[in-house]
Design goal:
The chain has about 475 residues and is α/β, with parallel strands linked by helices. It contains 14 helices and 19 strands.
């Protein structure tokens, strides 16, 4: 078992900022000590590796609880495999992902989970867990939920969108929520009124409105808000918590805030794309806007201030990525002449920590709130804390040494995601990962990847640790 010491850095967790040296023994953090103390000096004396973090932050590895590696969608597949996607995550300081296994309608939850386990096994550079997408809610799939919770798959995603693909009606949603109330599972909800959206898509195409910008117009903010309200009320009836994924609209956020003010266990995440991108990107000339097609869609710029406010007030509790990349060439181009055929999804797993740090630089959130949103709360929400999401004795040694003053320009030429464009091409930000450890192993150092596929382990998760 090797011993590593990280010296002279500012350790930042969701709870504290302190000058401390960190002792790692094997895969675990075992102690923190004041710099230059006798205890800290004893750490260094017996260490196999000493990392100097002078002038830098020492952070818990990021926890991205919403990714889609190798996801089939619209006749194609997400461009990142579990190998390439988890490697890119490590480059950006994320050391844990929770991806989505998919139940194909007509198959069991078990068959879907086994298929995704086979995709990920031996491929991941960092640790990983799974949520379960329920492609259909049946008596059999409801029974399977109990078994999966016992196996560490403690969250289940349902869709109010995509009729004919993943859509569940209100009765099915209620039954799944009732089951979750019994077994401790957490229902994750894609909250858009898909029935109404399909009408608007049909009408737009009949009018000849085929460009990418219409994707945002037909997926109206009011339909996100309506579905969010409905999901929360169904959860209240069932006596279950609910987690709204990829919230993008101020109107939907207001529904979550109102419920939380009333003591309801309603939670929501947003994503960097909704904090930094807008409908102006969807309206880029030619077919460039297709690069920005995702669901829920990008909103007008004025929504961004409300989302940042929601992050400060904790009405938005988590920032994930919904990483689901499709290349512009050959994939996004499937929707040339028909925006409804553009694969929905953006690349993002590599830049979440950096883009949130830019929010710190800009005065939108504090440093501790940054770590709360990106590390601690996702770990608590999905049953991984304190193994993940903090730096404390007994925690996994997932640690990032972060340079808060380094400048970097985001570009497809330099990112490590397996996709041919960057949503943030040419954007210069402040802050950059320097060193990344995954369970005590250095996987990124001096702008070099030192990790390997198969290092990442499957994480059996507990139930939600974040209920009010």
């Amino acid at each position: 078992m090797s011993r590593t010491v990280i010296r002279n850095g500012l350790v930042i967790t969701a709870a504290d900022e302190l000058r401390a040296d960190v002792l790692i023994d094997g895969e675990k953090v075992v102690a923190l000590a004041a710099p230059e103390s006798g205890l800290a000096e004893s750490f260094a004396t017996g260490a196999d590796t000493v990392l100097d973090a002078t002038g830098r932050y020492v952070l818990p590895g990021g926890v991205d609880c919403h990714t889609h590696m190798e996801l089939p969608f619209g006749g194609t597949f997400a461009a990142d495999t579990f190998e390439t996607g988890t490697r890119a995550a490590a480059w950006g300081g994320t050391t844990t992902i929770v991806d989505f296994a998919v139940q194909t309608p007509g198959m069991s939850l078990r068959e879907g989970l086994d298929a995704w386990q086979a995709k990920a096994d031996g491929q991941c550079a960092i640790d990983y867990g799974f949520h379960m997408i329920m492609g259909e809610v049946t008596p059999n799939s409801l029974k399977e939920m109990d078994q999966l919770v016992g196996e560490g798959i403690s969250s289940f995603k349902l869709f109010m969108a995509y009729p004919g693909v993943f859509y569940s009606d209100d009765g099915q949603i209620l039954r799944a929520m009732q089951k979750a109330a019994d077994n401790g599972g957490l229902i994750m909800m894609h909250a858009e009124n898909g029935i109404a959206i399909d009408v608007l898509i049909e009408q737009a195409l009949q009018r000849g409105e085929t460009d990418p910008r219409y994707h945002g117009q037909v997926r109206h903010a009011f339909l996100e808000a309506e579905a969010t309200h409905r999901a929360i009320q169904l959860a209240r009836v069932a006596g279950a918590p609910v987690y709204i994924v990829h919230l993008s609209a101020a109107e939907a956020l207001a529904e979550v805030a109102r419920a939380r003010d009333n003591g309801v266990n309603a939670f929501a995440e947003t994503c960097p794309q909704y904090l930094y991108l807008s409908t102006e990107d969807l309206a880029r000339p030619g077919f460039e806007g297709s690069k920005y097609v995702c669901s829920t869609p990008l909103r007008p710029e004025q929504h961004q201030a409300e989302l940042w406010k929601g992050l400060r007030t904790n009405d938005l509790s988590v920032v994930s990525t919904d990483h689901c990349p499709f290349c512009f060439k050959g994939q996004k181009e499937l929707g040339l002449g028909d925006f409804s055929k553009i694969p929905n999804g953006l690349p993002g797993v590599e830049h979440r920590m950096d883009l949130l740090h830019q929010g710190v630089v800009d005065g939108q959130i504090s440093r501790k709130r940054w770590i709360e949103l990106a590390c601690a709360t996702p770990a608590r929400m999905f049953g991984l804390y304190p193994r993940k999401g903090t730096i404390a004795p007994g925690s996994d040694a997932d640690v990032v040494i972060y340079d808060p003053k380094a400048r970097q320009t985001l570009s497809a030429e330099t990112h490590h995601m397996n996709v041919d464009y960057s949503c943030y091409e040419g954007k210069t930000i402040t802050g950059k990962v320097d060193v990344v450890l995954s369970r005590g192993k250095v996987v990124i150092s001096e702008n070099t990847y030192l990790g390997s596929k198969g290092h990442g382990s499957f994480l059996k998760r507990d139930t939600c640790q974040y209920l009010v």
